[in-house]
Amino acid sequence: MRRALAGRLLALATALVVAVGLVAQVVATAGKDSGYFDSDASRVANVFAYFTIQSNVLVLVTCAALALRPLRPRAAWFWVLRLDGVLCIAVTFVVFHVALADLQDLEGLDRLADFLLHTASPVLCVAGWLAYGPRRRVDQDVVLLSLLFPVLWLVFTLVRGPLVGEWYPYPFLDVEDLGYPRVLLNAVLVSALFLALAAGARWADRRLPGGR
Predict the structure, then answer these.
(1) Mean of all residue pLDDT scores within the chain
(2) Most CB atoms closer than 10 Å: which of 127, 128, 129, 167?
(3) Cβ-proximal residues to 185 (8 Å cutoff; 6+ apart), any chain
């Protein structure tokens, strides 16, 4: 009983951290008077094109659902979204801290949002999944279906880039600067990280303790 309560509280804390981070990011973006996009509305809308933001939205939705209604029977698609949230936020953490963190000099709300969405959220989400599960939900079908989201995001990003004036959310996907061969190589490397984490998640799901 205590373990279940602890799992719910950690899931709720994770959802709240993400919610605060997302609000901080939107407010900070809306408060800027310049940027690649001309209007406040377009700059705020563009926030949701980032893999970081979409990953955090997945974490928010799935953690809030587990915190508020942990015993509700759930369809297979929910466990796909749950695994996507865990894997994508882990990839976000690794890629940001390895390749992107030193490229920024932030302050104020931007700095708060950066910490909550790139560090606090990944740590809380992955720790919650490792410690509390729920378990026996990551089968082969769930793993395979979880690959759809990152693939679709990549296709969306590469197609959208030229349509909005060669804008790309991350330097390692900037086709105009790097060219398609280098960008596709970078995408393969990130995909390999995702696949390794997915395989690890399936292995761990069958061995770690945690509620069904």
Answers:
(1) 91
(2) 129
(3) none
